[in-house]
Amino acid sequence: MVRHRLFGVLGLLLLGVQGQSDNLGLSNGYLTINTANFNARIVKDAQVLASLTPAGSSFDFLPFDKLSVRANNGQYHWGDITFRYRQQGSNNWIDGNSATARRPVTAVTNGALAASNLAPTLGTSPLNITREWINVSGDLGLRFTIVNSGTSTIELGSLGFPAEFNSIFTNRDASTIQRLCSLSDPYIGMHAGYIRANPISGTGAALVVTPLSGTDTPFEAYRNLAEQSYSSTSYGSQVFEGLYEWQVLTKAWAEREWAGITPWNPASSRTLAPGQSLQFGFRFSLAKDGVRGIDAAVSGTGTPVAVGVPGYIIPRGSPAQLFLQASSSVSSIASDPSGALVVKEVSTGSYTVTPSSTAWGRVRLTVKYADGKTQTIHYHVTKASTDVLSNLGTFLTTKQWFDDASDPFGRANSVMTYDYEAGAIVKQDARVWIAGLSDEGGTGAYLAAMMKQAIQPNAAEVAKLETFVDKVLWGTIQTSDYGVRKSIFYYDKAAQPNYPYLTNANWGSWTSWSRSSAYTVDRAYNYVHVAAAYWSMYRVARAYPSLVKSHNWEWYLLHAHNTIIRATQRDVGYNRVGLMGETVFGEILADLTREGKTSEASALTTAMRSRATQWNSEAVPYGSEMAWDSTGQDVLGYMPTVPHWGWDGNARRYWDNIYGGKLQRIERQIHHYGSGLNALVLLSAFRSDPSDSYLLQVGYAGTSGPLSNINQDGGTATVVITAQASSAWP
Ligand SMILES: *[C@@H]1O[C@H](CO)[C@@H](O)[C@H](O)[C@H]1NC(C)=O
Ligand SMILES: *[C@@H]1O[C@H](CO)[C@@H](O)[C@H](O)[C@H]1NC(C)=O
To answer: Rounded to the nearest whole angstrom, what is the distance from the C-alpha of residue 158 to the centroid of ligand 1?
Structure first.
């Protein structure tokens, strides 16, 4: 509820009410261009791609149904081009953009399915650009020829090709989203790079977009495109992530907007002498058997394919495997930083990749092939997972340990949210739950500390956490009837007249709950955290009884059970939808059964079965308080595998920094907690069908994702969930 309310407010503030124009020229109709594998339509005037369906299918990868509200200047489509150039010797980059001020392009007849010269829509420029839609062995191809028609040498410092897919959820219900929408992810891997897109249902043919052979089109960066957000689609919001472009050249951005940031690939530019020309292009191909066939489809276009085992987030000191499949032989493999990864060939196409004993963080492998292609594979090296966990436990129970007994909110003793950048506990935030030990944004720290004990108990940490349970969790976060409050920090001058509330925080916003609002117990998601916390202490008490002093295992297990049952009562909202992290309910049920707690096990079974029965009858089960998240969709539809640690197994999230991040903005997050949660579903499905290694590949990637959120000292990104994928970054 709170979230929907926010978007209502954002909607009014950001989206405004603007008119739609037909700058694309939709009223003049479309050209149909068919190949053996696709039926496509391009807009007649603008010659940008309007619709792309597999031959014989009605599933459209493009938002043709929303085109009438995406026809304004400044709204991007496949076929558009953005660039920056300068005369050699000049410092000033000049921008070009085919979407800014559209005019009908000049049709050219040259044997292509459709071709045009872009001069009318680009205005005066020394770059003479021709765009062709072509037939590439039955696939659809898009090719640009750029000629320097001026009299001096030009440096091309940015070149981007906007990519559009039907990822618009705005004003659509869940079934409609499943039926119509698709999601895309990049592999920013230079000549081996590609974009993959698949129906959000996780079924049906998937689409891959690879570099067009005969052109030199490396995938250097993937840039989030700024578009005005009209109320019709809410571009750049929780219901429409927005679009990106495939950048072939990025030097001009690296010099300006991205100065000081280490890009995924080195930024480059190209020079063009007068009369010289360059070609760039893309090939759209189908993986007819769906997501599991994406590697084969990419390989089928002559694009090199890499598969890392177990993945791309790997611990230092132990070897991983890498398999390369390409039509040309490998001429060199280099690590950056040098020596961080040591690569040894085992047999043709098969390598071991061993991180050095001191490596940590991002490492890029650059593979050069004899045919001139370059491929980059992006790793993240962690400490050994047992060390990561132990560092995490230490950090959480020392740096994030809050024991100020005079705190009027009753937060002592607890593991609180921490601002890693500032090096301090977050005692106040206008989004009160962040400092209030509830909601995902305020719970993550203490829950991580407690779950860690279930796997790797530490006596001193357990002793501290027991005081948290007795002083804060039971009685303050939780009421005596097991209700879970939404926050125990609040903004309430009447209730706390002497508390030194920060003067510069945004206390007026809807997130600054008063005590009575904060103390409501009506959000089911919050009960999962508390149940999981008790359960982790139950596991410790059962396996290491001497470590737990204040309560026995039974107390913890029954508190976990009673917390779940309380969540099913009428005064708790969202308790009929799937809840993030509720996999632990199944663990609690198994333990109740094992412990002979038959009446509790039976009550829990009844409560859970009631929801399962309902979900079984629904086309799109589970639901969510959000348009979508880690609880309501088919995971295969939105968790990809690509040879890049940031996207491999990444559960797409782009809005949660609004609720839990230090930088409150819409941006693609790298390994949000959804990666780990969704992985549970994939790994469980894999156990049911061990022949389906794709499930293991994506599931393992998702489950190792959270390791990349833990710093070398054990500090986590609990406030900045992770800002590594800033929309402004490459
Ligand atoms: C641009 O290229 C086209 C053919 O590719 C040519 O007809 C036209 O004259 C060129 N324009 C300029 C300004 O050189
Ligand atoms: C496309 O190319 C293939 C061969 O690569 C050819 O068989 C087919 O007829 C072509 N289709 C069209 C529509 O040109």
So the answer is: 22
Residue whose CA lies nearest to ligand 2 atom number 11: 35
CA–CA distance from 317 to each of 334, 366, 712 (Å)? 18, 20, 15
Ligand 2 centre distance from Cα of residue 678 (Å): 42
Is there a contact between 701 and 688 (Cβ–Cβ < 8 Å)? no
- Pairwise CA distance, residues 532 & 716, whole Å: 20
Architecture of domain 26-300: Distorted Sandwich (2.70)
- C-alpha 324/C-alpha 330 separation (Å) is 9
User: How far does the centroid of ligand 1 lie from the alpha carbon of residue 101, in Å?
Assistant: 20
pLDDT digits (tens, 9 = 90+) for 92-121: 999 999 999 999 999 999 999 999 999 999
Q: How confident is the model at residue 174 (pLDDT cuts 50, 70, 90)?
A: confident
Task: Find, among 157, 161, 164, 208, the residue nearest to 187 by Cα.
Answer: 208
Q: Is 32 in the pocket of ligand 2 (CB under 6 A)?
A: no
**Structure letter (DSSP) for residue 378:** E
Residue nearest to atom 2 of ligand 1 (CA): 128
- Ligand 1 within 6 A of CB of 149: yes
Rounded CA gap, 392 and 387, in Å? Answer: 8
Amino acid at 245: E
What are the tens digits of pLDDT across the range 522-547? 999 999 999 999 999 999 999 999 99
Q: Which ligand is nearest to the CA of 33?
A: 2
Chosen CATH of 305-382 out of 2.140.10.10, 2.60.40.3440, 3.40.50.1220, 3.30.200.100:
2.60.40.3440
Six-digit token pair at 262?
């280490």
Largest CA distance in the chain: 86
Q: Give the residue whose CA is nearest to atom 3 of ligand 2.
A: 137
Buried b (16+ CB within 10 A) or exposed e, 253-281: bbbeebeeeebbbebbbbebeeeeebebb
Q: Which residues of 679-718 are buried (b: 16+ CB within 10 A; e: fewer)?
A: bbbbbeebeeeeeeebbbbbbbbbbbbbbbbbbeebbbbb
Ligand 2 atom 14, closest CA = 135
Say how many Å lie between the CA of residue 84 and the centre of ligand 2. 35
Task: Enumerate the β-bridge partners of residue 364.
Answer: 336, 378
Residues 601, 557: Cα–Cα separation, whole Å: 11
CB-CB contact of 399 with 334 (8 Å): no
- Name which residue leads in pLDDT, 509 or 621: 509
The encoded tokens of residue 130 equal 């021709």
Closest CA to 515 of 486, 540, 543, 537: 486
Domain ranges within the chain, ordered by starting residue: 26-300, 305-382, 386-576+579-621
456 lines ligand 1 (CB under 6 A): no
